Structure formats: structure tokens, C-alpha cells
């Protein structure tokens, strides 16, 4: 049995298969998952696990070069945005698009990780970087 890292087998498999520029979305309870996109459902109940818990674990294990966030997070959930930005390395590119555009981009992600987060616009697309 694994002692460290990503213990969820579905998440560990996605992480192991990621290549440069591949994308994964971490989403809140309400984010729709497009047909044919893998959904890794970690939600236990409202609030668990939190968006930040899952993001922390993801960032500990995956090199991220770019993130995409909904423009709406700036006004509708600024505290969540503040915490996200504190966690990102200064080399990570940040792009803001509309929430509708973010949902459309999810059609091309490798997986959507569903959290128990129940605060608005707690969704992020993370683009994998490359290790040398």
C-alpha cells in the first residue's frame, strides 16, 4: 500500500499519464462534467474535501505551468482566489476567462476532479508543465 503521494487510484493514474500541456480541472460540487470526460468524484458531503485540500495535494504532486480561472471568482469569491494565488509559483501563467468558457474548455481536459466545495466559482483548470 502507498504511504505518500496521491492515494486515490483514479487520480494517481491520471497524474501518471499526464504529459506536457495536458489539463485537469478541479471543481466544486456544482461544476458540470462534460460527457466522455473522466470524473474523479472525491466529494463526501458539502464542504469535504475542500477545493483547497485537493488543490494542495495536486500541486504537491504535479508540475503546473498555467492555470485557468473564471473571471467571476474575482468578485464572487475573492478569498478563494487570494488563497489560490498564494499557492502558485511565480512562474505559473494565470489566465482568466468567463465561467461559460471554462465549462467549454472542460470538454478537452483529461479529467474533472469533483470536490465537496460549496463556494461559488471554486474551479480551476491546471495545465501540466514539463520536468527536465
Notable characteristics:
5 helices, six-stranded mixed beta sheet, alpha/beta, 23% strand, 6 strands, 132 residues, globular
Uncertain stretches of 5 or more adjacent residues: none
Strand order of the largest sheet: 2-5-1-6-3-4
Order of helices and strands: HEEHEHHEHEE
Q: Shape, please? A: globular
Biggest sheet character: 6 strands, mixed
- Helix tally equals 5
Radius of gyration: 14 Å
Instruction: Estimate what percentage of residues fall within beta strands.
Output: 15-25%
Structural class: alpha/beta
Share of helix, binned: 25-40%
| Number of strand segments | 6
Distance between the termini: 29 Å
Question: For the residues shown, what is the average pLDDT?
Answer: 96
3D architecture notes:
- The protein is an alpha/beta fold and about 130 residues long.
- Helix content is about 30%, strand content about 25%.
- The chain has helices at about 10-15, 50-60, 75, 80-85, 100-105, and strands spanning about 25, 40, 65-70, 95, 110-115, 125-130.
- It has a six-stranded mixed β-sheet with strand order 2-5-1-6-3-4.
- The longest helix has 11 residues, at about 50-60.
- The chain is globular.
- The termini are far apart.
Amino acid at each position: 500500500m502507498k504511504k505518500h503521494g496521491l492515494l486515490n487510484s483514479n487520480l494517481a493514474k491520471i497524474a501518471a499519464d499526464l504529459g506536457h500541456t495536458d489539463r485537469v480541472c478541479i471543481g466544486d460540487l456544482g461544476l458540470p462534467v462534460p460527457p466522455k470526460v473522466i470524473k474523479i468524484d472525491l466529494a463526501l458531503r458539502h464542504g469535504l474535501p475542500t477545493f483547497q485540500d485537493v488543490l494542495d495535494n495536486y500541486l504537491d504532486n504535479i508540475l503546473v505551468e498555467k492555470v485557468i480561472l473564471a473571471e467571476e471568482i474575482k468578485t464572487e469569491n475573492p478569498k478563494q482566489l487570494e488563497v489560490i494565488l498564494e499557492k502558485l509559483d511565480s512562474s505559473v501563467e494565470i489566465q482568466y476567462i468567463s465561467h461559460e468558457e471554462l465549462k467549454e474548455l472542460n470538454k478537452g481536459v483529461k479529467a474533472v476532479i469533483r470536490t465537496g466545495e460549496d463556494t461559488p466559482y471554486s474551479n480551476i483548470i491546471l495545465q501540466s508543465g514539463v520536468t527536465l
